[in-house]
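Running this now, will post back.
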Amino acid sequence: MECGTRPAGGTANARNMSPDAVHGMETRCERQWSVNFEFQGTLVLEAELLNVGARARLFRTTPSIDGITNRRPLWFLTVNVRPPLVMRSGLMRQLPDLLFDKDAVRHDSLDSFLRAPMSLIRFDNPDIKGSKLADPEEVTSSLLEIQRHLITLLLPVAAETAALFPSGSSMRWWIYELIANDESGRMAQMAKVCPGVLILAMAIQASHPAKMSELLDMTAAGVKLGKILDTASEIFATGPKASELGQIQRIRIARAGPFVPPSLLMSVPDGGIVPEDIPDDPKDNLAWFKAQIIAEERANNLLAGPCLKSFMAFISRHAVELWRIAKTARMSFEQLITQLCDYARATDRYPGRTTSPEKLLQESRQWHDRQEYLRLRMPPERRGEASREISPEQPLDPGPIGAFQTWKLGEDVIRFLPTAGDLLEESRRMHHCVASYASKAIQGNTHIFHAEIAGEPSTIELSFSNGKPTLRQAAGIKNKKPREEAMNTIKLWFEDLFMALMASTRGTTPRLNGQFEGPLTALKS
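Update: finished.
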C-alpha cells in the first residue's frame, strides 16, 4: 500500500504544518489488490483515499503482443462525503446506508454501495466464470478500508441526523446530502422537528420539482413551520374534497416520523384522523401510518357512510394496538381488518373511538369461531322483530343486469354464486364468512363470485354504483390475499365484465381477454 500527502500547488513537510493546512491538502492513499488468471490476465482493484471522499476502480489487465498492457474497466466508484457531495458508480446507484449505522460499522459490515466489486468478481464477469479467488478477504479488507476512511470524514451533525432514518432506505443519504450542503443548519433542525416535510420533498422531486425546491428553500430561509405545512398540503388539496384532504395531509406531514417512507406519506386516507392519536415513537409512528392506509383501503371496500367514518375513527385511536395484536396472532393486518369489517357488516356492530379493541376482537372471534355466519338470516325490518330464516334455495339478485355468465380464460374460471345455499357452501369451503353477506346479496347490494385460477380458489365481491361495477374485494382461503397471478386474472375478468356490459348497451361486440359462456344482458335502465 502506498500513502502520501501533498499540498495543492507544491511540496511541504506535512509534519510541520498546522491542522488547518493539512486539512486543506489533497490526501491520497492508494492500494492495489490483484489476482492472476491463466490466459485471462490480472484483476486489479485500486483505491484512492482523498480528503473529501474516495475513488475506487476495478479493471482487468492483459498484456498485448507489443508489450503494452491493456486495461479493461469493470467498475468504478467516486464518492465525496464532504461538499461538493458526489455519488457515482459504474454499476448501479446504491446509496450509502451503513456508513451512518454505528453498530454495523463496529462489526465491519460492508455497505451495499461498496459490495459491487465482490459480486462482479464472483458472479457477473464472464471472463473469469468458474475461477476461484486467491484471497477474497483481501478485497473485503480493502473495501472496508475505504469505508472506514469515509466514516472519518462524515460531517457529525449530518451523519447523526441521517442515522435517525431507517436503514435500507435512500432517505439516509438524501438527508445527509441536504444537511451537508446547508450552511444555515435549518435542514438538520427540520429533520428532527418535522421530518415529514423533508420526506415529502423527496417523494415529489420527480412529480413536483418546483414544489420540492420551494419547500427546501422555505426551510433553509427559516420560514415558520405552519406556512411550510400549508404549502406542502397544497399538493393534495384537489378535487371535490380539496379542503378536507389538504387538512388531513397537513396533519400527517406534521406528525410523520423518520421511519415513514415517502410512498406511504403520499397516500392520503379519507378522514378519521385525530392528531393526538399519532404516536411519536418512530416504530409505533410507522405502524400507525401503515395501519391507517391498509384499514382505509379495506374499509372503503366493505363499509360506507357513517359506518365507515365510525370505523376509521376507531382505527385512528387504536391503530398501533391493533397492529401489535395482528403481529402476535401471526396474521396480516389486512386479514384482521377484513374480519372486523365482516363482523360489523353482519351484526351492525360498528366500533367508534371509545370502543375497546379487546372487547370488539373477542366478540368478532366468538362470532367467527361459532360460525354464526353460517346461519342464513335476514335482519328484522323493524326493531323488536325477530330475524327470519333464509332458504338455501333463495336466489340472489344479480343487480342491474339480467344474469352473470361464467367467464373462462384458458383453465381459469370465474362464476357467479346464484343462491344463498351457494354462499353457505362457499363459506364452508373457503373458511371465511361470505355467507354473512346473504341478506345484502338477496337485496342486490352485493354480488359474490367463485374463482379458480391456476389451482388457487378465491372469493370475489362485486357491487354496482350508478350502474357501473365496482370490484370490492378478493379473498382466498381464510381471507388470505390472493397471489399476484390470481389478482391479475381477476382484474382481466373485471375488465371484460365492464367492457361487455358497456358494449351490450350499445349493441356492439367487445374485444375481451377471456370468454363468457353466454351474452351478458344489457344494463337495466
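The first strand starts at residue 2 and ends at 6. More later if anyone needs it.
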